[in-house]
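ok trying again, last paste got cut off:
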Amino acid sequence: MNTSLINQANLKNSKIAYSARNVMLESVASLLRGDDVIPNSGDIVLARITKIGQLTELELANGRRSVLFADDEIIVCYGDCHAADQYDAQVPTDLESCDLVAAGGIASLINHRHAHAKPSTMLQPIGLLANGDHRRINLKDTALPKVVSLISRPYTVAVVGTSIHGDNTMVAANVIRGLTKAGYTVGAAKITGTASGSDTWLMIDAGASIALDMTDAGFPSTHLVSPEQVDGIIETLMAHLCVSRVDAIVIEVGDGLFQRETAAMLDSKMFAKTVDGIILAAADAMSAVSGVESLVNKKLPIIALGGHLIDSPLATLEIVNAIGLPVLDRMALGSSDIVNTLQIPLQENIFHIQTAC
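nice, full thing came through this time. structure:
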């Protein structure tokens, strides 16, 4: 391994991805490089774009999407990634050429590519960011501190999707909108999936006073992490939402019901004690039936359905008749009447009747 000093001015001229937004560039003193440097998930890397492919834009730390050009230098995180409609990728074992697999800024090495996905945008790592002691900087260094909340947990609704195409994020955003219209101060979090600024920014745009995701807990994605680590992400993000004194919490579960980490999380005691109600975002009637059955078998409190299912009025009618749960379109989810569907306690009592975090 060899190290080289880094010019702060050059570093600040790089495009800093959403995934690396919490890194203090002032703490970066050197780059680690060499054949013996093995990246870890969450390590921050300075890389050069060598070829433009599937991803043509990068979500920047400031919220803007920047068009990418060959030879751009970018600061991103190494991470594992699983997106059923694009790539399955893992952190490489060297600093050789790799792939940009998520617009939020994830560097990885593709194992499998969906038949309809284009070849990836390619990266040439320049070196891992390190501090003055030549210690690599990892996303965990920027994670929110562990806190113990003495404030009662407000009503918490989770949005779970049958697949990556269930429209989870938009369902969550509309629920936030409806609760905000009803006078609630809403906190939001994306607890599984891959770093995506567009998801948390949408939550803020919908009215959330605070929106967090797994990167705030030190993880670029939850692919290949252990169930215990996912529980830790939930615990950290929920505690910080609680101490922010919001009146209600909306959490988005990324990926689909049967994705490995999501499936394990839905079986965890931590998740079960965290949520008061679940809205299932379903892509179609068959996935809705299967998804509801799965959640009921796990004794999880499913309340309603939404998602792309509502694009088909006939499918919506079939589900209402078959399952008996309400199917809510975007207007219904975003209405103040959502508090009645969710059966949320009166706002003025909400901090006194829920279970402590």
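cool. The chain has two domains: 2-141, 155-349. Confidence is low (pLDDT under 50) at residues 349-357.
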